[in-house]
């Protein structure tokens, strides 16, 4: 092959396919335990994936991976993985391949919009696979960015996270592979703890396992059409405790995993000292208080107990800011009056912390833009030559990072406009409602404004648009555009 | 007075009050002609304004006006003028002072949201005053920026328009007062031409005069509750021609007046050569085509004639992109299907050209952000040290300007969030609808999403919020925040 860049890309994608093949063996265990006779639907794509992977793993010169190569591998990697990961759904269920792909991308990107209904009647191994891909996607995207960066020794990581300086400086150990091991260690540890607690509180082992997968990945898939509200409706004794536990672990998923590392190694103060953590807790407390007040202004004589108002509010605020997408109360219901609905919408846009599994624009970026805004006001009355840098946690934010954040937000708006327009053309949705679907997809938020039946009935054109939107959002916009740039493919 | 800055500010405001006093004498002529017995309601504020103005015009050292002084004068100036300009409405009509102030601010900022109903029964001089303040506001804000800049010899103008470089470089004559004279000359000339044409097409002289005032200022006040649709409904023979003429003059109001100057002095190509003009025409043609197609997809068997579809579409597209706010067809009607409604919403956000009388974020800023976005994508695959400036019309846009644009857009979003929240608390509007009012106010757009009756019935808290929003939008956000910054008031 002449183009050595293309060679490197294909080779890296090959490694990924081998990895996917191994992961596809996991649901086989579940299939065997529950004897749902579905071993072949995982085995076929697993073998296909491994063979394809081994065939395309050239012995490439791996000493230099350019930023554009890294970006292309990241973007194409998730697309390829999703295309193969969708095969089990397609083989086992009575849905079109586009639906299967939609569900898979919604899984890997931890978006959590579903087009599958009647979940409780589905084979156990399928439900397991659905939640497992969310769990891998959750920390997988972050890992992938880190690995590609390290291999290239390039500034790639800076390209993906506008807050690179923060990550770099607080990188717990010099070796990137050690960092990745630590991150996965924490992730696995948290997952195991949540499984045990949920099991103790009365969930079946299977439900405890799958819901832990989708809590910490802030993915939001559930085995029940009613999401987390199921446990109350089905009469679980400790449904309150179950909800509080899920609140806690959603919050953990929405926090930077490097913060977790520092907290676990003794620096407890990291949990509230960084500016992003301050905003995280501040917004959760502030918005929850406003929503509770708004609820009582609307219903002075109390619809439900005080504890239930607090619990439902806290659950939804944290589900939304971490972009998990679980629900114990529909955010379109009267429980949340107009101001509450607005606040929840804005939280979706903001999203959780950088270095977490959550989606959205990310808190620190909004903080940086807010600081820039204040700086521009100050500039008016400061001497012309005064140097007024944008400072976050005692670090000066370089201009190049601010530009990247602006590009990301601009790309977001652009994709919402285009996606909303496509939705309007190919559906009977109202104009504003047509924006909400692509908004949920881009922010990797979840199924808040459409019913499953509505989502299922939409045209394939819209579904493909949302698939691109989910990937674009999780990849933080730029890589998706880079794919379509011929210049990026040149050697 | 110790604080010489405060002294300068008060002195400049004094000059403005004298000017306002003179302007308040104009409707007296109309009052005398129509004998509506309302001379005193203009005379009282006129005398008050002149006296107050003369008392506060200190002999200040006018050699140096700092940017912050200029901004404070701009912001406070329009507030003071509006407070006094509201007096005639308050004295003549049966509305609260807040309503009168709302209408006045909506006038001066050329927003065009009205809280007055039964317009056709109102005294002629009141209708005249209402349209006159829009006409003055239209070019008045631009003039004010220019004057304050010139007096201070400072970089103030740069602070107001992110496109300063463009204005500076294309400043037609070196003397700023000559520039202002030329701008007003063009403005007055266009207004006279429109008056004559509308009169010839069958409007009364009064209607021709007042509608010309509010077309070129892209203000959008009309003497009729049905806006421009009135002329068709009332059976005017040449209503089609009337609508086309208004389309033309709205477009002229939405174009940079320096472009007009150049075109009038022979450089006709200026009308399409600059990037902003290219986008202006491109968007008008592109969006109109999409809306017409969308209309025919929805109604293949034609609701109305083809000419009417084109005329109504073109009218609304230009009314919206220039933020005039006139209507011949309600944008919430079925005539505009979902995609059309979305496109019109996005046009409102974008707005017209810089240096025009229109509101919104302004085309050139969106163009600059779009170029920045493309630059950031390019950066990924260009060598790390490659210099990739953002270039518009062969000029490199300095980083400081990009930051100012970002701050402006951020301030916009911030004010929409706050204003939308206040609306949600103090009204029974739906959450998304609650955002639309402050959106119309900030963009100086007009009365597109509420009925007059709805607007009138809103709480005073919301009306004051919108008053601040209209001023903030017209002043381009930063000055309003500077007022509330103690640092800006220091010497
Ligand atoms: K999610
Ligand atoms: K307007």
Automatic annotation (TrEMBL), chains A, B:
Compartments reported by the entry: Cell inner membrane
One Pfam match: TrkH
GO molecular function terms noted in the UniProt entry: metal ion binding; potassium:chloride symporter activity
GO CC, one annotated term: plasma membrane
Segments traversing the membrane: 12-34, 40-58, 70-91, 131-150, 182-206, 241-259, 279-297, 343-368, 405-426, 432-452, 464-484
Keyword set, alphabetical order: Cell inner membrane, Cell membrane, Ion transport, Membrane, Metal-binding, Potassium, Potassium transport, Transmembrane, Transmembrane helix, Transport
Main location: membrane
Binding annotation for K(+): 110-111, 219, 323-324, 444
Signal sequence segment: none
Membrane topology: Multi-pass membrane protein
PANTHER family: TRK SYSTEM POTASSIUM UPTAKE PROTEIN TRKG-RELATED
Protein family: Belongs to the TrkH potassium transport family.
Name listed for the protein in its UniProt record: Cation transporter
Organism this protein belongs to: Orenia metallireducens
């Amino acid at each position: 092959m002449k183009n050595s860049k293309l060679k490197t890309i294909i080779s890296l994608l090959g490694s990924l396919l081998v990895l996917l093949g191994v992961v596809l063996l996991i649901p086989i265990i579940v299939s065997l335990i529950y004897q749902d006779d579905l071993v072949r639907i995982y085995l076929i794509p697993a073998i296909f994936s491994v063979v394809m992977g081994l065939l395309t793993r050239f012995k490439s010169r791996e000493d230099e991976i350019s930023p554009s190569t890294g970006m292309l591998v990241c973007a194409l990697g998730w697309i390829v993985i999703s295309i193969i990961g969708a095969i089990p759904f397609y083989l086992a269920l009575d849905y079109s391949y586009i639906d299967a792909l939609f569900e898979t991308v919604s899984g890997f990107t931890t978006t959590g919009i579903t087009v599958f209904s009647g979940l409780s009647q589905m084979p156990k191994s399928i439900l397991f696979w659905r939640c497992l891909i969310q769990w891998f996607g959750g920390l997988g995207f972050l890992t992938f960015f880190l690995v590609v960066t390290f291999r290239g020794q390039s500034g790639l990581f800076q390209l993906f996270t506008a807050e690179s300086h923060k990550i770099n400086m607080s990188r717990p150990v010099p070796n990137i592979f050690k960092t990745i091991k630590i991150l996965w260690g924490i992730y696995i540890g948290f997952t195991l703890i949540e499984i045990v607690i949920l099991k103790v509180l009365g969930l079946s082992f299977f439900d405890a396992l799958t819901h832990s997968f989708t809590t910490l990945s802030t993915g939001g898939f559930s085995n029940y059409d009613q999401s987390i509200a199921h446990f109350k409706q089905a009469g679980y004794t400790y449904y309150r405790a179950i909800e509080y536990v899920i609140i806690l672990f959603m919050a953990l998923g929405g926090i930077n995993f490097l913060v977790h590392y520092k907290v676990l190694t003794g620096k407890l103060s990291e949990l509230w000292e960084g500016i992003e953590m301050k905003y995280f807790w501040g917004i959760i407390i502030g918005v929850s208080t406003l929503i509770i007040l708004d609820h009582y202004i609307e219903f002075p004589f109390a619809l439900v107990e005080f504890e239930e108002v607090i619990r439902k509010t806290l659950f939804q605020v944290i589900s939304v800011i971490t972009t998990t997408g679980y629900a114990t109360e529909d955010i379109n219901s009267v429980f949340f009056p107009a101001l509450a609905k607005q606040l929840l919408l804005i939280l979706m846009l903001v999203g959780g912390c950088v270095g977490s599994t959550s989606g959205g624009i990310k808190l620190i970026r909004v903080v940086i833009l807010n600081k820039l805004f204040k700086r521009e006001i100050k500039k008016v009355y400061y001497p012309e030559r005064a140097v007024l840098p944008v400072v976050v946690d005692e670090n000066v934010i370089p201009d190049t990072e601010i530009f990247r954040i602006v590009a990301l937000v601009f790309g977001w708006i652009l994709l919402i406009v285009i996606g909303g327009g496509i939705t309007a053309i190919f559906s009977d949705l109202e104009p504003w409602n047509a924006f909400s679907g692509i908004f949920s997809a881009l922010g990797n938020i979840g199924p808040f404004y459409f019913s499953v039946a509505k989502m299922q009935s939409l045209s394939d054109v819209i579904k493909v648009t949302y698939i691109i939107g989910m990937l674009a959002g999780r990849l933080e916009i730029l890589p998706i555009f880079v794919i379509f740039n011929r210049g990026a493919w040149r050697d």
